[in-house]
What does this fold into?
Amino acid sequence: MRALIAKTVLVILGGVMIAMALITMLSPEVDNKFLPPINMINLDSASEIALATMIRTYAGFWLGCGYLTIRFVYSSSKVQIGSVLLYIFGCMILGRCSSLFFEGYNSHSIISLILGVILYLALYFIHQHRKNQLDYNL
It folds into this structure.
């Protein structure tokens, strides 16, 4: 009974994290009901864009964590750290892409997106290389 309650709580909280992240990433304004009120009136345009970009990228982190929380409940296998990192960084890249769509392009956002994609690809290739080295005849 305790395991069922714990799994239910994890699925609900994972769903809330996914909903919060998707609403933050895909809405034109980053100020929504999941975040504390953000006073952007006193900020200049560059600071407002930087803050919104950071918030959308962080929402990608929450999307990855929400997905992994739900996946953890329904998975019977052990999740490798490489897989966890790939999901989190992949979702953060999605958050970065949504910030490019809503806040526009600048040199920092392009450079950080390129570095994020390079990091993701490096993780992916190393993860695949290690998976191919595993001996399943134990």
Summary: The longest helix spans residues 45-74. Helices lie at 2-26, 45-74, 81-103, 107-133. The mean pLDDT is 80. The CA atoms of residues 45 and 51 lie 10 Å apart.
